[in-house]
Structures are given as C-alpha cells and as structure tokens.
Amino acid sequence: MNATKAVQRVRVMAGDRQVVSQVGMHLLGDLADRAGLTSAYSAAVPWTGERAPGHDRGRLLAQVAVMLAGGGQCVADMAALRDQADLFGEVASAPTIWRAVGEVDAKVLDGLRRARAQARARVWTAAGPPGQIILDVDAALVEVHSENKESAASHFKGGYGFHPMFCFADHSGEALAGILRPGNATANSGDDQLVVVDLAVAQLPAEHRAGHTAGDPASTVVHPVLVRTDTAGYVAAFANALVARNIEFSIGARMNEQVSEAIRAVPNDGWQRAIDGDGEPRHRGQVAELDVSIPGWPPGTRAICRREQPHPGAQLRLWDTDGFRHQVTLTNSAGDIVELELRQRRHARVENAIKALRDTGLDRMPFRRFAANQAWLELVLTGADLLAWLRAVALDGELARGEPKTLRYRLLHAAARIVRRGRQVVLRLPANWPWAVDLAGAYRRVGLLGT
Q: Is 88 domain-assigned?
C-alpha cells in the first residue's frame, strides 16, 4: 500500500556555497546603514586609538540589533550572520560580543539613544511624519531563571526577574524608550513613567519635541503630544509633570467613593452610545462625562466614564452598580467624549507592541550585570525599531501591518542564490517564492534613503 506523503522525497547534501539565507536580515542591515544608524552607533562608542578593538563596536552592536530583529534570542544566534560573510561581512565572535555589550556604560548608552533618534528623524522624513504623536506607556514582567542576575527580584505576580517600563509610538509601534528595573519595582511609579516619557520625547525629531521639555512655553509647541496609560499612571504628580511639558494626558482612573458617587449621579439620559474603532455603535456600551473634581490633578481635568453590561460569566466589582461595569478616563483634552473614550480604549494596542518586543529578545536578559542587561534592552528596542521602519518605508498592504513572526517567515529568512558579476554581488531570489517581488521592492525603497 502506498503511504500518503506530505512532501516529496529528496536526497540531502551539505556544502553549497552559492545559496544564502537570512536575505531579509541583510535588508534590515542595509536599512540601518542607510538610515545612518550604524555610523551613528560607531561614533557613539568611543573605543578608538592605539588599543582600539579589531571590530568596530558600533557596527558590532548594529549587527546584534539586526540579529534580534530577525528573531535571534541570544548572543549565540549571531552565528546565523557570522556564517554568511557574503551578506554580513566579518562578524565578531561570541566572546567579543559579550565583552562589547558588557562595556556599555551610562555615557555610551546615552550615545546609542541619540544615534537611534538621529536615524529615526531620517526615517520619518522618508515615511512622512504623523499628525499628533500619541505615546503609550506601559510596563512588562520579564522572568529570569537564575539568581545571579544583578537587581533581579521577586515581583507582584509571584515570579522572579525584571520589571521594565516602556514608551511606544502608537502610530507605528516604534519602541521609543525603555528602562530596565528590578522585579519589585512598582507599576504605578510616576517617576519612572516620567523618565520613559522624557526619553521618548528625546527620540522624536526636533520639530516634534519642540515645546515638550519641562518649562517650555506653550507657544513653542509645533506638534501636539499625548501620553496614554492605564490605571498604573493614575498619579497626580505624573499628570502635572506632563502638563508642565505641554503634553496632553489620557489616563485610566482608579475607582473610589467620590468617583462612584459621580457615576450614580449621572441621569439615564446623560449617557451616550459608545462607538467601536470603525465608528459603528458599540454593543451595549455607553459614555458619560462625570461632574467630579479629582484633588491634586491639573485644572481642567475631565472624567469620562464608559459603562457596559459584563459579558456572560464575568463578575461585577464592588464599585459597579445597576448591573454595569464602569471604567473611567481622566484627560485634559478638549473634544467629544465619545471620541476621547475610544482614543483611550485604543491604548490596549500597547500589548501588541510589548508582544513584539518579547519576540525580539526581551525575554532574554543574558548578562549578570544590570548595566549590561540595560544595554541589551536598548538593542532590543533598536531591533523592534528596525522592523517598524521597514514596515514604514519599504512595505505595502498586509506586510506593512505584519507582526514580527510574519515578516520573518515571508521576508527576513528568505533564501537567494549569489551571483558574482565583476566586483558586484547579486542576489537572485527564487522565482516561485510568493513574496520575492515584495522583498525586491523593499530593497529598492530602502535604497532611496541614500548611502
């Protein structure tokens, strides 16, 4: 009886030197070069002179970011680049990479951040900047399974590891800023949230960050900036600090008796129908503005409440009344409450951005020293940015919205045949690969960024 087969039987032989894989990761490296990231990284790392290392440290760190963007999880995964010299040139050994990342101190880290901001300005010019900048702040837990990690600690969910704080650009998913924190750091630390907001604003091009430094007059603002957080941002000092930077806020509020009383005071005809992201009425959702003043919060703070009937099986909380679940948003933005409530609900997209970071090396903190792991986190952010920049300047349609795993399967891990013509290396993509045309087009568009 003939057995059913999923694939064709083939004979396997190793040793072909004309075929390369990871072609799309080479594209990411080309993007880093043309955006100026690699050169800026090189200038940010001051190890030069007679005793300078053999490998340019900035180039080395840029290659690590490319590896992470391509799905690598640890330093050992740099072998995928090292073994393909035709695409990536000379790649440092694992011990050299360990030393290079471990040598990054606070001064060098600041230089790497400035380098990323310079590259971002070039990419935004090519892609076209957004209108209002919306920054999403959130924290994540990173589990570690070793007790020799400096500053790793038990966290509020009973695990052990780190508790980094992040700030993302909502329009593109770019990982603008992140700080590594011990596992026992609190989620509602207004000071830490303000740090990542300031770092994120520093990542914006000059005209977008104008007027958003503490003490700047409102007249110097060119582009408005909004910061969104969940209830972890419910800290009056944080909101006041944002106002001092001419930044609007939209923050989830915690329930208390004062807010609950204001909800109960809303008349039945005071509720409006909530809407979904496509502008259609939301099933059973209603929105109302509360008549309440929150002590300590900036003047003009508005409280917007959404109520919905819980889905089957969900339990009401102590402060829920009349069979509805309630969520309150505090904001200093003007506008229609229905639109403002929908805007805050879209903060949930930050979870996708954090998921993308986890797919780009976040869940691996390979070093013992805390400073080295902070440097690794910066490279993780850079890897995530490279993917976001690729979507922005080089991809269309479904690929322009693709998750990291989708981009890796379809583009980054594609294979090609090397053809040498004179002194030029030509990559011939497989004719039957469904996304070969997209990959070739992405190369052409990245080339428009310049040399």
A: yes
Q: What is the dihedral of CA 334, 339, 345, 348, to 10 degrees?
A: -90
Q: What averages of pLDDT result for each successive group of 10 residues across the chain (451 residues)?
A: 78 79 92 95 74 77 96 92 89 91 92 96 90 92 89 90 96 95 89 96 95 93 95 94 96 90 90 85 86 92 89 65 82 95 94 94 92 96 97 94 94 90 85 93 89 54
Do the domain assignments include residue 428? yes
Full residue range of the structural domain in which residue 23 is found: 19-108+364-447
Chain centre distance of CA 443: 23
User: What's the token pair of residue 194?
Assistant: 């303000």
Greatest CA span in the chain, whole angstroms? Answer: 83
Residue 386 lies in a domain: yes
In a domain, 72, yes or no: yes
Work out how many domains the chain is built from and give that number.
Answer: 1
Question: For tokens 């090189």, what's the residue?
Answer: 42
CA–CA separation, 354 and 390 (whole Å): 18
Query: What pTM was computed for the model?
Result: 0.92
pLDDT of 173:
93
Q: Which stretch of DSSP H or E encloses residue 225?
A: strand 225-229
The CA distance from 100 to 102, in Å, is 5
